[in-house]
């Protein structure tokens, strides 16, 4: 039996919602894009499977669109916190399986969690953190928070690491962080030899506690 391909609905077609919708469509998924602003809907008509103009705080309108049949609904309403909360409540009531909501701030996020959003995302905050990490240590290419305590960073081998191997650097003992992989010439090596000297442009993928990663970033900044 053919595997059911996930179907997505995206509500709110601002910068965040429209890029989620476009990417999913490019990846070949069926996407219903919804916004109460007809111009925003028009911009996506030729990109996604269906684009409709509707107010997501209107329960009947959401029911008529068959919103509960979608596997995942993303609520990407930015400024209007009230509309975002009401929409989430309605989707919950209608029995949507998985609801992902973009939060404007921590308090908004708390409310969304309380009313049953399955996942709350903070794109501006997360991107701000990434940029800040990169500013503190330009070697940090990527910073992904795994939880409030742990992260994964991608770090270009700083000059102080070059010519040394992982055994000599002893990052695990010194910083209680683990080097998961080394990216060299675009190839990810998840079992990089401990005695292989690091070169310029090598990228280390490191997991650890946030404070230990920060210490590592500062020492090698
Ligand atoms: P971003 O910060 O991602 O650009 P915006 O706040 O600019 O987000 O965009 C949010 C979108 O959500 C807007 O296009 C707006 O028209 C839409 N929107 C707001 N309220 C509703 C609603 N009740 N129903 C449908 N769409 C809505």
From TrEMBL:
Highest taxon above the source species: Bacteria
Ranges where the RCK N-terminal domain occurs: 5-121
One GO BP: potassium ion transport
GO MF term list: monoatomic cation transmembrane transporter activity
Pfam families in UniProt: TrkA_C (PF02080), TrkA_N (PF02254)
InterPro entries per the UniProt record, alphabetical: NAD(P)-bd_dom_sf (IPR036291), RCK_C (IPR006037), RCK_C_sf (IPR036721), RCK_N (IPR003148), Trk_Ktr_HKT_K-transport (IPR050721)
Domain RCK C-terminal as annotated: residue spans: 138-221
Protein name (record): TrkA family potassium uptake protein
Organism: Cohnella fermenti
């Amino acid at each position: 039996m053919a595997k059911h391909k996930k179907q997505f609905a995206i509500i709110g077609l601002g910068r965040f919602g429209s890029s989620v919708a476009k990417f999913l469509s490019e990846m070949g998924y069926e996407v219903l894009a919804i916004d109460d602003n007809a111009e925003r809907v028009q911009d996506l008509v030729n990109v996604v499977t269906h684009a409709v103009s509707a107010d997501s705080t209107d329960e009947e309108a959401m029911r008529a669109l068959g919103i509960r049949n979608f596997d995942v609904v993303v609520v990407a309403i930015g400024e209007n916190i009230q509309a975002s909360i009401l929409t989430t409540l309605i989707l919950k009531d209608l029995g949507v399986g998985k609801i992902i909501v973009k939060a404007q701030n921590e308090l908004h996020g708390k409310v969304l969690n309380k009313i049953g959003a399955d996942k709350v995302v903070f794109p501006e905050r997360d991107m701000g953190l990434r940029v800040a990490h990169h500013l503190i240590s330009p070697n940090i290419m990527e910073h992904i928070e795994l939880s409030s305590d742990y992260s994964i960073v991608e770090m270009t081998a700083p000059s102080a690491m070059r010519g040394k191997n992982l055994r000599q650097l002893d990052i695990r003992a010194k910083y209680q962080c683990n080097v998961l992989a080394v990216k060299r010439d675009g190839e990810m090596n998840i079992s990089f030899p401990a005695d292989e000297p690091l070169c310029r442009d090598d990228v280390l993928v490191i997991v650890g506690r946030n404070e230990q990663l920060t210490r590592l970033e500062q020492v090698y900044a």
